[in-house]
Amino acid sequence: MERDQLTGIQVGPHTAPVMEAFRHLLVTKLCQFQGKLSSPYQCVDKLSQALSIARHVHDDGSDWLTVREHAGAYANGGGAFLEEHPWKTAEDSIRKLYSLLDSYVNDHIPPQLRHLYDDVYGDLRSCLDCLIFHGSMNGFHAALWEAYLQGGWPCGWSGELIEHDDGSYDLSGSLIYVYWENKGDAPN
To answer: pTM for this one?
Structure first.
């Protein structure tokens, strides 16, 4: 198994892409609404509206909070992957990475969004879990990751939510709502 040269972290067979993604995240201003929000993301400039969108139940009975929870279970195999080879031997390093992520989110989430800590940490951990345990992010996690890299907080979608046979989700072709305080820099 490969070991990251800078940190010594070894998270399994996909260490290089995991650590590359994590380092990219570290230079991102978490939920700081920097730059421009690009398609397929739709700006939501009021936190109360973003929270309402996150709780909205779609016609098929799905809602953002439940979909995120199920997507997280897919990403880490419901926690079972840590019990399997090759990750069992990397468990300490994986937990170290989770701790680094926890510190990063805790230190960088804006004070006015502190109440969203669990959501932000959970989303980002779920994205990293996809890389650790699957070698790549599925469509849903890639969309979450990109929303965070653009500086927003993903809070919902409009369009088709595709659930694959393996339990992963995809939002391809959907509009993804992102809380974005600085609407002047974001498309409508």
So the answer is: 0.88
